[in-house]
Amino acid sequence: MPGWGTLPGVPIVRAATTGDLDAVVALWDRAAGPTRHAGRHDEAGRLLARDPGALLVAVDDETIVGTLIVGWDGWRAHLYRLAVAPEARRRGVARRLVDAAGRRATDLGAVRVDAMVHAGNDGAIGFWRAAGFSVEGDDRRWSLVPGAAAPPSTSAANR
Ligand SMILES: CC(C)(COP(=O)(O)OP(=O)(O)OC[C@H]1O[C@@H](n2cnc3c(N)ncnc32)[C@H](O)[C@@H]1OP(=O)(O)O)[C@@H](O)C(=O)NCCC(=O)NCCS
């Protein structure tokens, strides 16, 4: 009897291997949505080396049609790089990826699962809402590029 994942049009979700990375990066290049940085092969390789279960792929008939990274900080799981091939959208692929991420998060002991969502990405917002996620209070993402010049101190100017 064929396995559940071998049904036509029903992708399986599994952890990515290094052999998947060319296809993963190609998918990110064309389907990542609004992002400053779509993600590279060497970066994904470092992720797999450090945390082999963190990159999930949805595979339909041997083609990678979706990805999701499940990060873990010991308390929360953090979801990144949810991307589904345009021709595979609205077939529940992202939902399967997020369900699998939820199982991984539960296995790890996560008490919360967070997702990074661009405020202008209406399609993604529709998806995350449908998946049961909601916007978190007043939290904003704060970032620094390591090694970049620090802005001039304002305290000296105010003396
Ligand atoms: C957002 C994205 C991942 C959704 O993937 P998907 O596989 O098409 O989503 P699903 O089929 O699992 O959708 C499940 C439900 O989410 C909601 N949903 C999905 N896409 C939506 C959209 N574009 N607009 C509004 N709601 C949407 C719907 O309720 C949908 O159920 P329905 O199809 O029965 O109406 C996909 O559109 C994508 O890859 N976009 C580009 C990359 C991106 O923006 N990623 C998100 C980064 S945070």
What can you see in these coordinates?
With 159 residues, the protein is of the alpha+beta class. The chain has one domain (4-133): Gcn5-related N-acetyltransferase (GNAT) (Aminopeptidase, 3-Layer(aba) Sandwich). It contains 5 helices and 5 strands. The protein has helices spanning 21-31, 41-50, 93-108, 122-130, 154-157; strands spanning 12-15, 55-60, 63-72, 76-84, 112-115. The chain has a 5-stranded mixed sheet with strand order 1-2-3-4-5, with helices on both faces. Helix 3 links the parallel strand 4 and strand 5 (112-115). The longest helix is centred in the middle third of the chain and has 16 residues, at 93-108. The radius of gyration is 18 Å and the shape is globular. The model is unreliable at 1-5 (pLDDT under 50). It binds coenzyme A. The site of coenzyme A has 20 residues, from strand 4, helix 3 and helix 4.
Query: Percent helix among the residues?
Result: 25-40%
The fraction of residues in strands falls at 15-25%
CATH architecture: 3-Layer(aba) Sandwich
3D shape: globular
User: What is the C-alpha radius of gyration, as a whole number of Å?
Assistant: 18 Å
Going across the biggest sheet, name each strand in turn: 1-2-3-4-5
The pLDDT mean sits at: 90
| Ends apart, CA distance between termini | 78 Å
Low-confidence stretches: 1-5
Specify the structural class: alpha+beta
* Succession of helices and strands: EHHEEEHEHH
Which small molecules are bound?
coenzyme A
Q: How many DSSP H or I helices? A: 5
Total E-strand runs: 5
